[in-house]
Write the structure tokens for this entry.
Amino acid sequence: MPVYSLHKDRFFDPDPTVRKFASEIYNSTKELPIVSPHGHVDPKIFADNHPFPNPTELFLIPDHYLFRMLYSQGISLESLGIPSVNGKKVETDPQKIWKIFAENYYLFNGTPSGVWLDYEFNQVFGIKEKLNSNNAIKIYDELQEKINSPEFLPRNLFDKFNIEILATTDCVIDDLTFHKEIKTSGWNGKIVPCFRPDSLTDLSSNMWMPNIIKLGEKFGSEITSYKKYIQALEERRKFFKEMGATSTDHGVFSPFTQELSYNKVEEIFQRALKGDSTQEDVKLFTAHMLMEMARMSSEDGLVMQIHPGSYRNHNQIVFEKFGADKGCDIPIKMDFTFNLKELLNKYGNNPNYTLIIFTLDESTYSRELAPLAGHYPAMKLGPAWWFLDSIEGMTRYRELVTETAGFYNTVGFNDDTRAFVSIPARHDLSRRVDANYLAKLTAKHIINISEAIEIGYQLAYELVKKTYKL
């Protein structure tokens, strides 16, 4: 079996002038610490610091990027061991699942997932063969041996990856128990929470009423009015800040914002408590709560992230069998100029407010988002997200926004990952793609190499720390 290695100039333009500049820019950023301001890694793995169970649960089970591709080729999620929510039996033999993964590894050629996996296997775990059906169990055993060793414990990998700070995403009513355990453990790794209120602001969520009851328990008083509801949310934000949070996160269907009168929102809230919400109630309440969250952020300083543009759980059958976040969230067309007008007019000029917008609808980057971020002081653009956080997607993002918004109205890279060991792979890809984009500008004499190196540093490290107040 030939030795497999990653090319030192991967993802750089073949033009020798561009490649030379790209290599120089990348080399100036590749050793910078990783700042991961938003993701979905479970803090429990760092609190417990136990060995990962096996390669299948480390790589495949938590990563919907991977099993969505396999599912698209007719491979059942049951056969991949994805836990069901309806009690249906799924495959539990991790080696059998790994064999399926290996037999179909070729499906990831040319995709972001393939790029990340190649890096993880080769650079993180030192695997010098490309995974396939013939070497599947051999590589599985090699990975199992390594993850059982102290070197590959979660905290040691965190340090090895040179992660300076990692933000998780946590429900409003979470006790943040694992964050507390990490803080009192004596370990120096910095893990902070992020305030995610969606299940308490989306009246259509089947968890809204149960979570309202839990919110009341945290607040110390039953939530019987909109006023109490807001007070309880403000208390939870204060608790999250005390635990190190610097941001909030809002995954909404639409970025529509509208401030309602107190009487109007109280009427909607009371109908929700009775289980009588209408579709119009759901729309208006979410729009109003985005305004409320912006108000709170302008007062307590938490950075506000909004990521609309996704039709979540599009595959109803998969959702009913396996629950949310199983790879069937699909991009939809968005409007930002009209929908954000009320919010930006009220808070977009406030120096104490920061709004980061992400989207899956890349058609809006040059038409709406870059002009908005290029004007309103409070608004910044998040990086290309999900299906777009690829070599071509990241490049298109820079091409579409830079001339209007510049580099300094963007916020660096956000890996948004559930798969912990993919973090260095994804940041390395981002730094290489940005280096290549800057190299092209340098080769065209639009910027000089000193400016390119400084911008590369900002994109890889400084902008994310500044914007997220880290």
Q: What stands out?
A: The first helix runs from residue 16 to 29.
